[in-house]
Structures are given as C-alpha cells and as structure tokens.
Amino acid sequence: MTLPTTHVSFPAGAVTGESTVLAVHPLDGGRYAVVTGATPFHPLDHTWPDQPADLGTLTVDGVELAVVDCLTGAVGPEGSPDGGPDGGQVLVGADIPVRRGDEEWSWLVLHVLAADPGDIVGRTAALAVDAGRRGALSASHSGCHLLALALNEALAPRWRKDPGRTDAFGHPDFDSLAMASSVMDTEASTDTYRLGKSLRKKGFTAEATEEFPALADALPELTEAVNRRLAGWVAADARVRIDVPGPELTARREWHCELPEGAARIFCGGTHLHHLGELAELRTELRLSEDGSELVAVTRPKRA
Ligand SMILES: [Zn+2]
Predict the structure, then answer these.
(1) Separation of 269 CA from ligand 1 center, angstroms?
(2) What is the whole-number distance in angstroms between the Cα of residue 138 and the centre of ligand 1?
(3) Number of C-alpha atoms within 13 angstroms, CB side, residue 153?
(4) What value does the CA radius of gyration of the chain take, rounded to a whole number of Å?
(5) How many angstroms does the Cα of residue 255 sit away from the middle of ligand 1?
C-alpha cells in the first residue's frame, strides 16, 4: 500500500477541512485509524511528544464519528527490512524505527476511532477539531516558547562561559541545553530541566558566587523577573506566526514571534496563538527539586 505523506493545515490554525479517505487501518485494542489526504488535526509526534493530540470528529456520508486520539503513523518503502514484517506496513508511534521526516518513508496523520467505520475508503470526510481544546493547547504551547526565552534571559548571568548555543536574543540557550522534557496540556506547559554535571561543564553555575546567591535562594527573584518579562510580552500583543516551508506533516516549521526586543524564532511542530493579546495573563512557577538536580517550570496561560 503506497500512501502519500499527509498534508496538514493546523500550522496556520485551521480546525476544519474536507478530504478523501485514503485508508482505514486496524490498530491494537479494536481501534481503527483513518488516513486522509489532508487534515487540520495535529497528531502526537512520535519523536518529541510535547503537544497532545487534537480530538474531534470525522463525518462521512452524514455519519459523525468521534476521533478519540490522533497519532503519527509511517509507512516504510516497499520491501525494506524495517518497513514492518512485509514492508509497506503502517507503523504507529513508538513502533516507527526511524526519526521523523525520513524521506524514504510516508508520514501519516492517523485519526483514531473507537470502532470499525466500515468501508469508507474513497469517500469524502468532513474533519472538525475540538476548537476549544485546540485553543487551550495552542495557548500552552505559545507560553512554553515564551517561557524558554524569558528563562534564558533571567539565567544568562549564571553562565561562566559561552556554552556555544544561544537563543534568538543572543542569551545562552539554557532551555535547549538543559531540557529533559516538555509537556503541554490544556492548562499549562510543564518544562523540566536537568542541572547535572554536563550542564556545569558547559559553564552553568547553580551555586552561590560573589555576584549572585545559590539558585535555590534566587528562585523567588528569578520567578519574578521571568513573570515581569512574560507580562510585558503579553501586554505588547506580539504577533505570532508559523513559517511553513511545505504542506507535508514533516515539513520543518518555525515559530516566529515579533517581540518588542526583536523577532524570536524556534523550530516547532505544534500549534500556536496568532497574537499574544489572546492572553489575559501568562505566569510561570519555578520549582527546584530537593537535591537541586532538576528545575521545573509550570507556565499557565490565562486566556482573554
Ligand atoms: Zn514548540
């Protein structure tokens, strides 16, 4: 079975669309995956699963089917040893043996149904994403990127040397250098940073020096500085857009935000707000684990 890589409209903010059903694929647990040529649904990414799947409905011939999950699928080249037992099979999520975007593979958005939809291949499906949930996830995802920039700035004085990676504003990129995991939900983005030996080797200082207190003691002040910066950006109603080099699910997209300090950009496969004035407030809470090895930022957007 040869399927083309799915075209996606979620980067521009779409929540509805229409497309032909190309395949229906049985999944474990009696569930079924519907593949369409194009979709507004954002699937969970199998390589970096930060933003949860869109939910919603798929309507074929007047019958509305609930999309209970949305996953990334991939089909290897026919006859390839890692394309599944027979080659050319649809593999799902963690079973995909190659990294996102491998050009020999087709990359699919899988709309997961709880039951067999019957013979719908070749029919037109009307696709509708739960827009409220999407909006909340987009707010959390935009908040996540802004937190990264504000945290990098607040922690910049703690680098003894240039770690060799800076963000869009020229600050040492603590966010990407220390990132252990980043997870969004409809309420917040939770970013976990590892403050281990390798970060220290790169030049980061968590201990007290003559210039600043130990990270644990500086936390209230750092939190305040980050939140002041976030409030300023929300008040500036900065514009947000996603640069899309192509319509394919696997295109390398980039988040752009026109902040007062300049244009910020971060590679990103998720969905976002269109401008920061869609928020009434964005605040983060910084927590340090007792042994000081982990910094956790929980960033909550309040929508206007
Ligand atoms: Zn992102």
Answers:
(1) 6
(2) 10
(3) 18
(4) 21
(5) 7
Tens digits of per-residue pLDDT, 93-121?
Answer: 888 988 888 888 999 999 999 999 999 99
Dist. CA 44 → ligand 1 center (Å):
12
Give me ligand 1 centre to Cα 153, in Å: 18
pTM above 0.85, yes or no: yes
For 145, the token pair is: 């990127």
Cβ 148 vs Cβ 191: under 8 Å: yes
Q: How far is the CA of 271 from the centre of ligand 1 (A)?
A: 8
Q: Which residues have C-beta under 5 Å from ligand 1, the single-atom ion? A: 268, 270
CA gap 129, 15 in Å, rounded: 5
Residue % of the chain over a pLDDT of 70? 96
Give the Å distance between the CA of 53 and the centre of ligand 1: 14
Interatomic CA distance for residues 227 and 243, integer angstroms: 27
